[in-house]
Amino acid sequence: MSNLKNILESRKLDIGIFLIWLLHISGLIGILSGQGAWFVPKTPLNLLLMALLFIWIFPLNTGRKIFLFVFICITGVSAEWIGVHTGWLFGSYHYGENLGPKLDGIPYLIGVNWALLSFCSGCVSRNLPLPPRARILFGALLLVILDFFMEGLAPLLDFWTFQGGVPTLWNYICWFVLAIVFLWGYEKLDIQGNRKFSLHILSAQFVFFMSLYLFF
To answer: What is the pTM of this model?
Structure first.
């Protein structure tokens, strides 16, 4: 019975990793081949599928995990609301149409994306041979680097647009501070999850956005 369970878990992981790369590589090839008008509006569906795979495989199966995930979702959306409506966080910007339905100008899925990336970054960092504070800083830096590549593409993909066309240093400072808060929570609550799955999600995101940044 134990061997069967291990086989099923391995198959589940393989399916999840295959779908991660299938969706990201298909989108990347589609956009670079000039079919962005069809692929980019499907971004909300991609985010939703990634979230469902994450819940299934990570998995999101304890009270502490659910609490932190919901906390990051709410905090992320709240921070984005403050940014969009006041400019106090991140800078002056607004969301476009390709991240899906919005509540008062903020896409519903943006908080889910915050939580998903924070959990994956926390899981990857947690397994490094570093003290907790260094792991938190490393994970936060990963998220800021990913954000750098996303920011260069966001206006072209109609995700979001900053006043003046480019984000200021304040955007990255806010990202870094919030990421530290979220990853501190990940360490403090002693969250455990599937590191291999988390690594593939982050890798796929980096490959997707870095490739578009260089060639789009």
So the answer is: 0.94
